[in-house]
Design brief:
Elements (H helix, E strand, L loop, with lengths): L2 H19 L1 H19 L2 H4 L3 H28 L3 H25 L1 E2 L10 E2 L1 H22 L8 H36 L7 H21 L10 H7 L3 H32 L5 H21 L6 H32 L3 H23 L4 H14 L10 H16 L3 E2 L2 E2 L8 H15 L17 H8 L19 E8 L15 H6 L4 E6 L2 E9 L6 E7 L2 E7 L1 H10 L7 E4 L5 E5 L4 E5 L2 E7 L4 E6 L1
Parallel strand pairs: 5-10
Antiparallel strand pairs: 1-2, 3-4, 5-13, 6-7, 7-8, 8-9, 11-12, 13-14
Helix pairs in contact: 1-8, 2-4, 2-5, 2-8, 4-5, 4-6, 6-14, 7-8, 10-11, 10-12, 11-12, 11-13, 12-13, 13-14, 15-16
Amino acid sequence: MNSFARSIMQIVQGAVKAFTTFPAAIACAAAFTAVTMVRIYLDWPQQKDYLFLFNCLHWSLGFGAIFSTTAITAVQSRYNDKQAFILANIVGIIAAAIAFGSLFIWGGRAPEVGQISTNVLSDLAEMRIIMAMLVSFLAFLIFAGWPKEEPDLAKSLFMTHKAFFISTIYGFVLWGGIASVAAAIQALLYQGMSYNVYSYIAALTGFLTFTIYLGYFPDFRNAESDERRLVAERQPRFMEILFGYIMVPIMLALTAVLLLWAVRIVTQGVWPSFMRLSGIAASYAIGGIWLHTMLTHHEGKMAVFYRKYYPFAALVILGFEAWALVVQLGKYGLKTTEYYFCLTWIFAVVSVILLVLFKAAAHRKIIILIAILAICSVLPAIGYNVLPVKAQTTRLEKMLASQNMLVEGKLVPASAEPSEKKREGITDAVNFLAYSTDAELPVWFEKNFANGEVFKSKFGFKQTWPKDDSFYGTMNRVYLSTSLYLSATPIDIKGYEWVLKPQKFQEQGLPWGEIKGKKGTYKLTWTTNKQDGTPSLQITLDGRLLLEQSFKDYIAKIEAAYPAVHSKTHAAGLADMSVTLETPEINIMVVFGEVHINLNNRENKTNYNLN
C-alpha cells in the first residue's frame, strides 16, 4: 500500500475511532446534526414558532461538543483512568444540558419591531455561550500539549490547525462528490427531487467532517509521544517555508509600515480612520503573536530574528495605538469598537511583555490571558453591553444638561438650536444607545429616539450626523451606506379608493399592477434605472398616459436628510418614507417599506434600492 492510500486509511480509521475516543462530543455533534435536519425538513410557517428552541439547542450542543472534547482530553492526558474517562463524558453531556437550560430559561428576550418570532435569543446570551466555547477550546489547547509538567502549546496549536484544515478538505470533497451524485439523479432519474436534499447532504458531511477532525488527534492516553503524535505535531517542509520565508517578511513589512505611520503621527499629526486603525491593529497584534508561536521551534535566521525583535517593535506600535485610542475616546467616548480595541490592546501588550520575559514558556500564560479577557467581556458589571452604554449615557446626559435639555431626569426639547458640534454629539450618542441591545438605559430614554421624526419632536432639532471620522468611520471609508425602514405607525388612507401591493403581482410573475375602475383599466409599471437603481412609476388608463414620475428628487431628499456616512439601519416615519403624486385625474401615495443607499467612494458610484 503506497503512502497516499495509507494516509487515507489512517484518516478513515481515525474518524471511526473518534466514536469511542470522544463519545460525548460525537453524541453532541450527532444531536446538533439531527436538529439541523429537522430545521431543514420544516418549512417556514412551521419552523418560525420553534426558532428560539432550535437556536438554544444548536448553541448548547455546539458548546457540549467542544466542552466534552476538552474534558475527555484532560482526563486522558493526565490520568488515563477508565472511571475518569466515563466521568468526563458524563460531565460533558451535563454541561450541554445546563447550557441549554440556561439559554432557554434566561437567554430569551422580547423581539424587536418587525421580527416574527415570539421570543428570540438575546445577543448577550449568544455572546456568553460563544465565550464559553472559546474558553473550552483554549483549555483543550493546554491539555493537548504534552507532557503535563510543561505543555508545548506551539505543537498543540499547530496540531489543531492541521486537524482543522485536513478535515475541512475532506469535508468539501465529500460534500462535492455526494452533491454531484444527487444532481445527476435529479437531472436524469428524478427531476422532482427536493432541493432540501442538498441541505441534508451538507448537514451529514458536516458531521462526518467533525468526526474526521477529532479522529486526526493522537491517543492522548500515551504517556510517551508515539509516532502518530510526532507526525501530527511535525510541521512539513512547505509549512516551514510558508511561516519562515513568506509570512515573516510580510509581518516585517507591516511592522515597517506601522513604524513609518508612527513617525508620520509625530511629525504631521495626521490620524487615520479609527475603524481602519483598530482593524489593522487587531490583525497585527493577534496575527503577530500567533506567528511568533508558530515559529517557536524554527531555527532559520529570519524566524530567529522575528522572534527576537517582534515584541519590541510591537510595544512601540502599541504605544501609538494607545494614543489613537485616547484621541478617539476624547471625541466620541467609549463605544463597542473602542471597548474591544481596549481588550485587544491589553492582550497584545501583556502578551509581548510575556514573550520577552518567558519566551516559549509564555504561551500558556497568553492562553490563560485570552480566556480571562473573554470572560470579562461578558460579565454583568464590566461586559461589552455595560461599560460602553454607561459611558455614552454619561456623555449624552452631560451634553443635554449643558443645553438645559435634561431637567430633573426629564427630557426637554431645546429652546434654541445647539451648536453643530453639540447636535452631532447628541445624535451620535442617541443612536448608539437606541441600537444597544441587552443594555440598561436611562429611565427617560426611549428606544424610538432613533426615528428621525421622534428625535426632532423630543430634542427640538433634526438629527445631525458627524462629518468627520466618528465611530462609524465616516468620510474615510470606501463603502458607505444608509438604510431606512418604515416604522410601525398607522397610515391615513382617507380619500384613497384602492390599496395596491406590488408583491402580489411579482408573485404572479407580472411586471406591473392592474386595477379595473369606473373609468377603465389602470396599469402601473414600476421600472428601475439599470445604472444606479433609481425607480420610476408610469400609470396609464386604457393605454393613455396619466403619469410618469422618476423618484430622483425623492432620493435627493433622503440623501440630504440621511447622509451615507454610517452603516446603520434607522426607523423612519411616514413623512420620510412616502411620496404623494397628484394629477387632475389621479392621486397616488407611494409608501416605501425600505430605502437603501450604497455609496462606493473608490469608483464614485451610488446605488439605490427602494422597496
